[in-house]
């Protein structure tokens, strides 16, 4: 009987903690969240992305890509978002970029993209440690995330790939803005 009462107390305690946690979502960074290394980029990382972008532009000139999506022409600035929302935005952007950089490619481009791909994959891991829980993003971000999902379903992979690669520096700026937290304005 005593044992049973004790178990019940434990269960009650856990339930109480869980509901309190849900009632007071925290905007404070999580324990493993540390994006300090993305506050500025190493020149070799930037150069690797630049080289890949230039090579991709050459490939694009030789191919005929019909593409009219304007995913990255947003009416709002990343700095306008709260820090937890920037994390969500950046995770979605990195996810998109990584998917596009894993598409089949000619050997030369495949080689060039390895370093940026490695960097972006590492960044995505680090951003995932910072994703908010129990936090509802504002309408403008939700709308953009929906637009991205919709584009993934309706646009050709050639168009999506171009959109991602040509906007990599914008995504890196968003990553930097998320890493700078309150100092990105
Ligand atoms: C975050 O990571 C950097 C290295 O990337 C390290 O120098 C720094 O001490 C870390 N900060 C915290 C709070 O763990
Ligand atoms: C791209 O390069 C990586 C590493 O060099 C290799 O493992 C992979 O099979 C290559 N993929 C394609 C599509 O060529």
UniProtKB/TrEMBL annotation:
User: Which UniProt key words apply to this protein?
Assistant: Antiviral defense, Cytokine, Secreted, Signal
Which terms under GO biological process does the entry name?
Answer: cell surface receptor signaling pathway via JAK-STAT; defense response to virus; innate immune response; positive regulation of immune response
Principal place of residence: secreted
What start and end residues bound the annotated signal peptide?
A: 1-21
Q: Name one GO molecular function term.
A: cytokine activity
Q: Which InterPro entries match?
A: IFN-lambda_sf (IPR038326), INF_lambda (IPR029177)
Q: Which GO terms describe its cellular component?
A: extracellular space
**Official protein name in the record:** IFNL3 protein
